[in-house]
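go over this record:
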Amino acid sequence: MAAAVVVAGEAMAAAAGTGGKKRGASRSWILFDAAGEERVLDADKYAIMHRVDINARDLRILDPLLSYPSTILGRERAIVLNLEHIKAIITAEEVLLRDPLDDNVIPVVEELRRRLAPSSATQHDAEGAEEDESPFEFRALEVTLEAICSFLGARTTELESAAYPALDELTSKISSRNLDRVRKLKSGMTRLNARVQKVRDELEQLLDDDDDMADLYLSRKLAGAASPVSGSGGPNWFPASPTIGSKISRASRASAPTIHGNENDVEELEMLLEAYFMQIDGTLNKLTTLREYIDDTEDYINIQLELFLSSGTVCLSLYSLVAGIFGMNIPYTWNDNHGYVFKWVVLVSGLFCAFMFVSIVAYARHKGLVGS
């Protein structure tokens, strides 16, 4: 693989005719092309728009200073991809990834460097492989989807490892420290759940619309624009993805006579998206299970509190009943010359009610109804 070449002050925007307009702030991008070359670009937004032929609205989606949800957009010559920290533009021949020095983006850069290297034709011949290679944009898209699914899955695993012990500790001992700890974990879970849900919804939306998936076939559109419709057959961009282990039979591919005859065939991309949809859906299910566990823990704590309050209310009601009966203006023969008896009645009834409350709590703990 060719070494990275640092290109400072990219001058591509000069051809865009921006004239005396104020230039946008330069941003750091790293570029990978189909030949295995890579280089760092310090280009402004006009240079990027001119290079990949997208409008300013699409480019704003990738602005880290603006809060845009996860999005995958298919354009005529590019795929605009905003998935959390992964902000990229994919064309049929190159990938531009924003902020390559970010700690979360560095693993994506390494994976793109490894996976987008051109395959060795000699090795293919030696193995007797006759199947075509996946389109460049699909390999790049697969790297980004795999990276974001793995990233969100790792965050979910970290949250689980911290949340379950905290919830169990809260169940055994209710304290302000444990309650505050669980509150923070629940807030983090809510935010993470929203992020995972958005990525899942974006993949589901793509899978539900064949036209949107067809827009992502950049190589096919490029080949179709370069070659007129003919019966002699055209390039086939429906190979099997080596990552998800799927294969399309040679007979199916041979039955597709022309590029335009296959323009609605999105089976390859559909299988790719389904694989990562299932992965992100599994992550969302983990978060759902965690949310249910938190809700169950809250219900359990509420039951404990209600048990304490109900027991205390019963005991106080009984004490108030006794005090109320003997406090009424009713003549008692045993109280004529012994007024101190009323004090003993109140004292004994109070001790009895306190003993009854302690007994109820002790019984509940013995049966495991409340924590120790």
User: Anything to note?
Assistant: The longest strand covers residues 27-33.
